[in-house]
């Protein structure tokens, strides 16, 4: 534990009342097809809360749904299910004047300072617009307020009549922050606010954000993919993968002792500045599954390095086990890809498909290993299904045979440690070994 | 330099603090407008007359008439009365012409004077803009400055602009430019007389304008032709010669410019408003709104434009709509309906593009209303594209109107229209009376080229990176 005293202080003062409470929130994107559509499950059942005055980091790789979550909290996307309570009021169903009032309380800072400011408006007009929309006091008081805001974020008053074109990226982001502050919100969503900036500027903007938080008692949801930045600024961190919240907990604890296997893998991807340090990186296999067709069990089950094995195969050679997992992934990819038109014609004509046949894939995967014969029987059975273009049957077959609790049951968020950390993994169940222990044996 | 208070001063106060540039500009403006006050008041009177005419029962018609008479009495500098050219030779010198000069020279001086005045007004307006930029604008730089500067460096675009201005001035000052008037020469030739020097009797004689016209038509044969820049037998100067029926071609051309320009600009304005409005709605709401508009616009675009025009004009042949402004109102309505899908199509892409910008989300996130988002955050980016497309399509409309009139549809006689002039002279193209078809034909070509050049100029100014080889946007469009 390397908790410094300042970090300790921050976490204790942050323990205020709950400002935002999210319960089983789902945001699906319908593709608008006329037939039964298969929506993209961008946010798929997320629950967490944020305390007044704290900074919650939201991390995850691209496409994991973190930006969609932020936009849903802003009511820029409509929630499919679940509730979002701001100070106890569910905001997913607000409309009319209630919605307008809510718009005052929650603001957003966008990722790209080039795109988030209307280039045809002066800086003054941009920062003033929220005040105009909400009829804030008199016009001259609004102008006064805009000038104050510009000073607050480190710009100058005479920038009022300049255009965004005349500013650097960091200054533009300051303008965006001034606009977000204009209506004195309690809660600000920062959607990768420094990702588009130079490293030297990043630090300045982050310090500004921290200063503003202290000065105005703001609550932040800090969306980012830069883990170092998150560690620097956040009190607590939430890790997202495939629309699910894999782990959430105090930043220091989560970074030092990740509980969830995905967090493990994510943290091991942080480059180590010291080249002499020996480190075992966990490289994840493959790519995340399609959010249209997430795994039935644990969202991470298709790539998890410490996935629970079924009892019958617990002592199997790890290499063979990995090949089986890869085989399953190949089948998943194949079932996702629609056969091309020429493939269909070939099939109708009874000719060989262009797609790699199972007789090529199986030797490639298992050829160099000593595979137990019972395992090989199952593999061939599945390959037969796939050969007949029935990948789904093959997948079901393999899942029944080699699947474990990770494939069959969606894990619950289980408590880890005593500081309110939650992690979405079956391994936290007393029945199984903890992920950390398994990682130890894995990397040795 | 800049203090807290300086940025808050309203424009009026900023002018008050440094009044000299504004005062000089305003004084010049007062002079320029003052000398034309009579003409401006006459336009007001004419508009009032039209409004009264449209109302049922013509309320206050007599009041408007007395008002018009009073306005007519206000002197105007740029007018036929100041530089008259309709005099006659009395055996020793010219009578009733400007400084006793020949009618041709007097006319040339008047035309030059009209254009000088028009360009002076434009120069004054431009000077006002630069004065504002230099002395009073709070912003030192706006993105529009770059657009203006790029256009100033675009020779082809400036050439187009000059042609367009020449054409617009021709339309606006049509009554002052003609060597004779519409009323006298074309509409009521038998109500007026012309005095001329008769070689036979060696004295001045008078004849009805209508009879003089009969004797000065251009019908191909050597003695029955009044070529451009010549006098006819009655001492009247014809800059573009005469038409087949002896009426002055130049007068008809300038008044034809008026009606062509009105139709093209108003039709394009309505189509542009519909197109821009729909583009905003479809880009903002997408989905069903977009799909419905695609269906409607595709259906309209599938119709052959010229055939729809002909059909509609035939259908409305004997109705009151056909009578309004000699048929121009009906043509404007048809063109608006037919052209908006083209405009909407051409700006739909930019509109969708701008609707994806983060500043739209930002505006939504603090509760900006959809109409304001469209107006403040989307329309300014799309408007320039619409302007390009509109300026390129104006030429197409002018050609289409001329085509319709050529076919005998379009604008009804006796209102002059370029297309009908071309049709009028068609059988004399290979004769000494070639000018009847050629002059209006050349003018159409020149104006359409000018409009295209102007459109190219705006496009390059607005979007320097745009692909200049874009055929779809660069064509004149229309029929």
UniProtKB/TrEMBL annotation, chain A:
- Pfam families named among the record's database cross-references: ABC_tran (PF00005), oligo_HPY (PF08352)
Instruction: Name the keywords, alphabetized.
Output: ATP-binding, Nucleotide-binding, Transport
* InterPro entries per UniProt: AAA+_ATPase (IPR003593), ABC_transp_ATP-bind (IPR050319), ABC_transporter-like_ATP-bd (IPR003439), ABC_transporter-like_CS (IPR017871), Oligopep_ABC_C (IPR013563), P-loop_NTPase (IPR027417)
Indicate the segments forming the ABC transporter domain, all copies.
Answer: 20-267
**Gene Ontology biological process:** peptide transport; transmembrane transport
Asked if the keyword Isomerase belongs to this entry, the reply reads no
Q: Which domain of life is it from?
A: Archaea
Q: Name one GO molecular function term.
A: ATP hydrolysis activity
Q: Does the keyword Aminoacyl-tRNA synthetase apply?
A: no
The record's similarity note reads:
Belongs to the ABC transporter superfamily.
Q: Which PANTHER family match?
A: D,D-DIPEPTIDE TRANSPORT ATP-BINDING PROTEIN DDPF-RELATED (PTHR43776:SF7), TRANSPORT ATP-BINDING PROTEIN (PTHR43776)
Q: What is this protein called?
A: Putative dipeptides/oligopeptides ABC transporter ATP-binding protein
Recorded source organism is Haloferax denitrificans ATCC 35960
From TrEMBL, chain B:
UniProt keyword Calcium, yes or no: no
Give the family this protein belongs to, as stated in its UniProt record. Belongs to the binding-protein-dependent transport system permease family.
Where's it mainly located?
Answer: membrane
Q: Which residues cross the membrane?
A: 22-52, 104-126, 159-177, 259-281, 302-321, 327-344, 382-413, 433-454
Q: Name the InterPro entries for this protein.
A: BP-dependent_transpt_permease (IPR050366), MetI-like (IPR000515), MetI-like_sf (IPR035906), OppC_N (IPR025966)
Alphabetical list of Pfam families matching this protein:
BPD_transp_1 (PF00528), OppC_N (PF12911)
- Provide the protein name: Binding-protein-dependent transporters inner membrane component
What cellular component GO annotations does this protein have? Answer: plasma membrane
Where does the record place it? Cell membrane
